[in-house]
Design brief:
mainly alpha
Length: 109
């Protein structure tokens, strides 16, 4: 009986400590922006994301023009150097921190 309770408690603790999949995309998008886009853009990822509202980002992503829009925002960016699998995480990050999205830590805009 003690083993069952211990296993249940351990599994509950593990499941609570693992972030949700949507948060993982946002965090990964932030890391990708810092690693791949920041030097070319010259400004933070939040400033990048605040170029559009959440609905606009969704429309841009659904129409398949997200890489081209990133190029419009950051003219020095070469979109060919960014792997296709990264765009989904960059999109999740952009939607979360869009103009009408969550304000970054310490900001109330």
């Amino acid at each position: 009986m003690r083993k069952v309770i211990g296993v249940a408690a351990l599994s509950l603790l593990i499941s609570m400590s693992i972030p949700t999949s949507s948060m993982a995309g946002v965090k990964k998008g932030q890391r990708i922006y810092k690693k791949k886009l920041y030097k070319k853009c010259g400004f933070s990822g939040v400033i990048f994301a605040r170029h559009h509202l959440q609905g606009e980002w969704e429309h841009i992503y659904e129409t398949g023009t997200f890489p081209e829009e990133a190029k419009n925002i950051c003219p020095k960016l070469t979109i060919e150097t960014i792997e296709k699998k990264y765009w989904k995480d960059l999109y999740a990050y952009s939607v979360k921190y869009a103009k009408d999205g969550v304000p970054p830590n310490g900001c109330t805009d």
